[in-house]
Amino acid sequence: MGRRDQPTDALRDYCQYLSEALRRTNVALSIAEIRWEREGWLRALAKLWRDAKAWRGRWVLVQFTELMWSRRGFPLRLLTVLGVLKARRVRVAMLFHDAGVGKPRRGFNRVRVPVQYWVMRKAYDWAARSVFTVPLEPISWLPSHPRKAALVPVGPNVPSLEDCPRAPASRVAPTTVCVFGVATFPPAQAEEVQAISFAVREATRHVPGLRLVIMGRGAKEAEPALRLGLNSAQLNLEVRGVLPAEEISCLLASSDVLLFPRGPISSRRGSGIAGIACGLPIVAYSGRETGFPLTEAGVVLVPQGDLAALANALVRVLGDSDLRQRMAARSLRAHQQWFCWDSIARRLARVLEEDGAAAEAVAVGLAEAS
Questions:
Q1: Spans of the chain, pLDDT less than 70
Q2: Taking CA 213 as the corner, what is the angle to CA 304 and CA 266, rounded to the nearest 5 degrees?
Q3: pTM: predicted TM-score of the whole model, two decimal places
């Protein structure tokens, strides 16, 4: 899995949820971490060599994100890891959480981005199977007929509506818009704060007494800018920050709409999937990765960066209770069919079985100490 993310680590949450769901399908998945951030690469690879001796013939799910295998985004050592695993004769399945890493516009990225794409292509070639969390069609670096590739979306990173211990039977006043997570990278944070402020200010002109709840990673860091941007709006603003998963679920379940300004929504965005799992209508940007099965949920999509369209969509959903109910029902159906962890586990197991896999898997991660 690479180095540990802070203050929350969505990938380790993903592996834990996946492990529990696979167990319910009689597939054993254990999570092995090699702490390369603390011990260095030589010791990490030596430990991997020793541990992988017992994995011969088993599936090893190797996780990939943009910065997981390198501090600066040059994940060349991932290929060394794959070489160790293949030498130990394990069955390698790549799980690409980041399938696209942007365009090499200028400066540092003109070198980094081509290296990342080259590494991903090599990893795909070397692996027996590759799993992607977004539709395959927009992934430009895949071969024209990617027979080894399959789509398996991520699940929610919080309990679903049916598992929320304090989920309300029905949503009541005040009308609530929630935002789950804000970027911490300053330019991205500024864009998201602008989108939230513009859309919510417009909504307050049509929905008196509106309540806005900002929660999750980056919320506290963005609070000063949010309060400044919403200064003229008549609303109740609550900034809750990082909370236990169960509390996040309860806040989502008690909201009326999830506003998703974190770039285009897709089936790899756990914070967006959390809204689907909690039965929420979602107003979001669309992009290249936005497609089936996410479009089966109750989502209203607008072009990325179109603030007026985002605000109009939010006003329309908030002003039509029948529309919200229909969208909420679509989200719950989509969750049950595509995004609940049991469904994800079954799909992943079928992907591995297509290659003659035994019902046992080992998730290998490389991570620093907590």
A1: 2, 101-109, 164-173, 355-370
A2: 35
A3: 0.86
57 is a domain residue: yes
* The two structure tokens encoding residue 35: 């702490």
CA dist 329 to 222, 280, 296, 319, 323, Å? 32, 8, 11, 17, 10
Both 137 and 171 in one domain: the answer is no
**CATH number (domain holding residue 239):** 3.40.50.2000
Report the distance separating Cα 333 and Cα 347, nearest Å: 17
In whole angstroms, give the CA distance from residue 178 to residue 100.
28
Task: Give the SS3 label for residue 284.
Answer: strand
Same-domain pairing of 198 and 65: no
The predicted pLDDT at position 74 comes to: 87
In a domain, 5, yes or no: no
The pLDDT score that the predictor gives to residue 102 is 57
Quote the domain boundaries for residue 27: 10-155+341-366
Give the containing element (helix H, strand E) for 35: none
Extended strands (E) in the chain: 28-34, 59-64, 91-96, 129-132, 149-151, 176-180, 210-215, 235-241, 257-264, 282-286, 299-303, 360-366
Q: Is residue 4 part of a domain?
A: no
Amino acid in the structure at residue 27 = V
What single-letter amino acid sits at 353?
A: E
* pLDDT at residue 32, as a whole number: 82
CB 277, CB 338: distance < 8 Å? no
Q: Are 266 and 294 in contact (CB under 8 A)?
A: yes
What percent of the chain clears pLDDT 70, i.e. is strictly above it?
90
Total number of domains constituting the chain: 2
Other CB atoms within a 10 A radius of the CB of residue 182 amount to: 26
Alpha helices (runs of H) in 230-340, residue ranges in sequence order: 245-253, 270-277, 307-318, 321-334
Give pLDDT tens digits for 198-255. 999 999 999 888 999 999 999 999 999 999 999 877 888 999 989 998 999 999 999 9
